[in-house]
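Quick start: read one record
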Amino acid sequence: MLHVPLPILEKILRPIIVYFTLILLLRVFGKRELAQLNPFDLVVLLSLSNTVQNAIIGEDNSLLGGLIGAMALLAANWSLNRVLFAMPKLNRALQGSSRTLIRNGKVDEAAMRDEILTHEELVEVLHKQSVRGFADVKECTLEPGGTFYVETREESFPSARHQEILKRLDALTAEVKALKQA
């Protein structure tokens, strides 16, 4: 259980090499892998983890070997985050830039093609943020980390409805206050 058949240096280097390779590959293949996972993307990510398992642990199934590999992986992640924090230019270069998909209700077809997003997937993103459709969007951006930022137009349904609810709530509060005083 505690016998490590592979050299400890190899147990440390394997996960670090796989970690940086996966970061590079995910960067090359785009933000979509981090954003909206459809069933195909999920299968790819699950298969990817299984595929690189042996590359990380090698022929070692010992407890100590697994712990060394896990510690090396966490240390690589911690170190990379510290380096990227200290070097913002490198961070921007590695993470990429955000991509505007909708501006003032108009969908950027080229950006959609580049990010391999369908209109249906984008509508799903909007609906998750209580936006009815493209016309209600001032700007929709796919961020480098795979999250969507959606800014609605002032006259859009969720924003207008929210304002109306707040007005009615204020009116009810005033009525209750008046009733208490009477």
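Residues 157-181 form the longest helix (25 residues).
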